[in-house]
Amino acid sequence: MSRDKILDAAVRVFSRSGYHRSSMDEIALEAGVAKGTLYYHFPSKALMFQALITEGMRMITGRIKSAINQDRTLQEQIELVIRLNVDLFLEYSELAHIFFNEISNGIEEDVLLVVRNERDAYMQFIADILIEAGMAQEDGRMAASGVLTMLNGLCGYYLRHPGEAKREQINRLLYAAVTTGLLQGQA
Amino acid sequence: MSRDKILDAAVRVFSRSGYHRSSMDEIALEAGVAKGTLYYHFPSKALMFQALITEGMRMITGRIKSAINQDRTLQEQIELVIRLNVDLFLEYSELAHIFFNEISNGIEEDVLLVVRNERDAYMQFIADILIEAGMAQEDGRMAASGVLTMLNGLCGYYLRHPGEAKREQINRLLYAAVTTGLLQGQA
Amino acid sequence: MSRDKILDAAVRVFSRSGYHRSSMDEIALEAGVAKGTLYYHFPSKALMFQALITEGMRMITGRIKSAINQDRTLQEQIELVIRLNVDLFLEYSELAHIFFNEISNGIEEDVLLVVRNERDAYMQFIADILIEAGMAQEDGRMAASGVLTMLNGLCGYYLRHPGEAKREQINRLLYAAVTTGLLQGQA
Amino acid sequence: MSRDKILDAAVRVFSRSGYHRSSMDEIALEAGVAKGTLYYHFPSKALMFQALITEGMRMITGRIKSAINQDRTLQEQIELVIRLNVDLFLEYSELAHIFFNEISNGIEEDVLLVVRNERDAYMQFIADILIEAGMAQEDGRMAASGVLTMLNGLCGYYLRHPGEAKREQINRLLYAAVTTGLLQGQA
DNA sequence: GATGAATGAGCCTTCATTCAT
DNA sequence: CATGAATGAAGGCTCATTCAT
Prior knowledge:
4 copies of one chain form a homotetramer.
Chain A: H1 2-21, H2 24-31, H3 35-41, H4 45-68, H5 74-91, H6 93-100, H7 109-132, H8 137-160, H9 167-179
Helix pairs in contact in A: 1-2, 1-4, 1-6, 4-5, 4-7, 5-6, 5-8, 5-9, 6-8, 7-8, 8-9
Chain C binds a DNA duplex (21 and 21 nucleotides) through helix 3.
């Protein structure tokens, strides 16, 4: 259906150029529909973006939860969550950048609120794992915030220095930051 | 002078609305000068942004370097660097936010390059300390990138949840991420 | 359609104020459409200008060529071409004025090239007749250039001094310049 | 003095870029004075241009008249005037273009009027020679207009096709147009 | 459901001009 | 005489949005 073609195209375009540099023209072109069609399915650019984030997160958290919902040790869970997050981040890098760096993009305030809530829910989801592993409530939420932005930074570095860094490093360093400290996170 | 008024206003406006949503009109208004005056002092919006970053970083790195240049153990150095960074980040949160986040979306390529170099130089500066502490070269650079964005995320959380989080937590979690792992970073 | 309204208005405005003093606002106003509509139909001011020249010339050369394509002596051909050119110039004086004068000052290089080619093609068309009449190749091209700008000047004079000059004089002087010299071109 | 430096620079700049593309900044730079100095000596850009044309024409017509004011045959006079005009045109090509192509440049109406008068005086000066050579009054004025725009066209062609055309051709073709007709103007 | 022509507010930038020194 | 910092009107262009079909 048109709606899905549009949403798929929008993810690609937003992810390639960021929210502001992505134009409705470009999205329509990429989706292979007329520009008016975008407005048939979504009331505005901002609300299209919101739909994309909301539905995308539903899918993503679903995928992660179902992957976790099997008997695993805490350590395995942490490793798995990290790996899945890194994979997702690298696949949808610009979108993830937007998702984790709120203010940077002057989206309409109400839409921003929805995106933030979505993000906070996701962070709580990560925090819960850390808390279950023994962290204090407060520390857990804050640490989750830190871990996810660190993931943001490591992936960013990886993408900006192709060839230099290896993908496996990202996972290793993140795991180290959580469990042993970065200074021990090496052979 | 006008130039300083403009730069001050630009930091506020850019960090409030992000690069793209900030208009030259808004900056001129905030600075209390005519729009033409912006172009008397800076050739373009992008180059104004570049000047703001370059001059801001010169001040910040200068302050950190002069604070470190004394005999200390590595551990003390790490603690100190973290504390200074957190202090600076919270003091100049607007500038810092721009520096760490607003570096991707459609600024002219050459300006982007200058800003990135500035940031990479700073990260290398942090990386050198980690490497001296025993990290591998590659891991050091990448880890520095991760630590600084984590700092970004923790400070952001702190600022977004006033009252909930305490400032000391930021330092403690960062130090833990570097030395013992976040899960051990608690009493 | 909008596109035609715009092109018509553009000819009027450009020939009234010249390329640089003509603003897109003015053209939109004259065409009775919104400014954005101009950009829906033409990618830029320069390309609008190019379209106007190209399409205008296509019409004009078409008309002249079809009038010539019959058996005539060279002398008749020269007389005919002069008369047709004068007629066209006076009928489309605005467009002609642009075509012969407004071709130098700071339009984008590629557009300028297209317009010049269009004009050179037309001049070659005139040159061929002179060459066939016995002129050297080189001289023919250059002379055609001279004759057409002279036509420009004579018609301009005629239009600027209504009442003083008679239309027939234009034809006579031009014909004289080509065949007997201006000094002999009189009863 | 400053005034002369400015006028000299203005001729170069206007002649290089045309009236509209020449900025007061550029003129000040070329003259080696501050921008404010321009306005100390001239009330506005348009009036500076007017001064430049008026004083330039005074010099030019002076030069031509003094060259003519010696015993010569009419034929020699015509040859001489043509040569001098071509020399001047090629030396100050853009300026000459402006001078002969009025409307093209949307200069302020009053200044335009002065420039036009200056030009009409010059054309009358050329016309007088043609009339003395036997042309009718009316034809003389119109023909002078035609000859000068033809000169405009030939020089333009020469400048646009470097290498192809030779400078001597311009003189020869112009002389032919006046005396024998272009078709006879060749060996 | 879908289209695409048309819109107009808003953006970055240029530049002739002013004025206090 | 001369300066140069400051101005603000105006220009070309982009783009989210509307609406008749």
